[in-house]
Amino acid sequence: MQVFNPAAPNLQASRLVYVAGQRRRVLRARNDHDAWILQLTGLNNRDQVEGLRNHLVEVKDVDLRRDDDDSYFVHELIGLRVVTDTGRELGTIAEVIYTGANDVYVVKGDGKEYLIPAIAQVVVRIDLPVSVMTVTPMPGLLDESE
Hints:
With about 150 residues, the chain is mainly beta. The protein has helices at about 45-50, 75, and strands at about 1-5, 15-20, 20-30, 35-40, 55-60, 70-75, 80-85, 90-100, 105-110, 110-115, 125, 130-135.
């Protein structure tokens, strides 16, 4: 399962993006450590580009492409109800933490917080149409003393 960082939503060449309210097409894109380096239409010199440094790159939802059927965007996951495979309600996804090894879903509900690893052994199903994620907790994942 893969979750896309909203700061880097599939910036393939020829994609339409918006920067500082201006629609531009991606001519080239490459990942450089924790940042993307983009060449965009209409920006032909360093001074033009420098004025856009650190601006948010936005993409319309309808223009986003998934790599596969097991890929989700963070904005689709936030707010999903999380239940165990036995029907126990845990809460809703409030945040996604990027750890490097795997993402972690922060689930909050009934005054509790659970950290759910985004791995196939734990996340059984994500059903976007009904806004539910089903998980099989590993031993020790939930406070079993309750």
